Amino acid sequence: MTPREKLEQLKKPTAKSEIKYRVGSVYDKDRGKATVLSYVDARYVQDTLDNLIGPEFWENRFYEAKGALFCEITINIDGVKISKSDCGTESDIAPAKGEASDAFKRAAVMFGIGRDLYSAETMFADLEKRGSKWVLPRDWKPNTKASDTKPKTIPPVNLKDQEVPNPAYDAAKDLGGIPLGDGETDDDDWNGEEVVKFGKYRNNSGNRDNDITWAGLPLDYLQASWWDTMNSEGLKNKCKSELKRRSK
After folding, report:
1. How high is the mean pLDDT of the chain?
2. Residues 130 and 200 in one domain
3. Residue 86 is assigned to a structural domain of this protein
4. CATH number of the domain that 26 lies in?
């Protein structure tokens, strides 16, 4: 098998048994109707690399750049080393671990592992209420009774069409509007009070009085050009939502 053929093997469709699901965007908060996102866990990526490349022929490393955690995966095919990297976002549970896992999986997508999930048809579901939070029914799968039919319309979340002489609004417009995505934010609920958990403004002191919220970030930091090239949709969307909030 040639190196190119080995690389192409990494792009094979994800087995249905390996696909997991989570809530995407709740578009009907009263009745608990939402889009559903599909994903794979880090162990699937590890197993794929072990099986197709060989455990001794791949490695990964983590590094920080411009306030974001990146993972670089290097594979060795017949003496030729190929490296690809991407950054991750923190999860609500175990933020540091979630950020590392997300960066690892996103770097793997650069090689094609799990990339097919990004072009999958949008799924919809009726959620269950657990406490104050809407969640997917236990063991939810597509095409089950828990699946919802596609709504006629989902209200788009976009910036105002008219020109607004506001630097925050202009920066948000340059970032391409306010679409929701992985790590999405709902602009109707966004108030900028979420604590910053990444980069140089992350509070590592352990004293919650030193927390910095998105509303407390300097405008020039939010307008920095590196946001536009950032691969982390979660952080990028929060940046857009905060810029939009300030533009009102």
Report:
1. 78
2. no
3. yes
4. 3.30.390.80
Tens digits of residue pLDDT in 124-168: 999 998 888 889 998 888 865 444 555 555 544 443 333 334 444
d(CA 181, CA 41): 18
128 and 180 inside one domain: no
What burial letters (b/e) apply to 3-25, b meaning 16+ CB within 10 Å?
Answer: eeebbeebeeebeeeebebebbb
Sheet holding 20-28, edge to edge: 20-28, 33-39, 123-126
Q: What are phi and psi of 201, to 5 degrees?
A: -95, 5
According to DSSP, the residues that pair with 77 across neighbouring strands are 80
Amino acid at 193: E
pLDDT at 57: 95
Task: Please check whether residue 126 is in contact with residue 148, taking contact to mean a CB–CB distance below 8 angstroms.
Answer: yes
Note the pTM of the prediction, 2 decimals: 0.57
Are residues 129 and 27 both part of a single domain? yes
List the domain range (segments joined by +) for residue 112: 14-135
Could you give the number of structural domains in the chain? Answer: 2
- CA dist., res. 124 & res. 149, Å (int): 7
Specify the higher pLDDT residue, 210 or 49. Answer: 49
Burial class (CB within 10 angstroms; exposed 0-12, middle 13-18, buried 19+) of 245: middle
Spatial separation of the C-alpha atoms in residues 40 and 21, rounded to whole Å: 8
pLDDT value, residue 106:
93
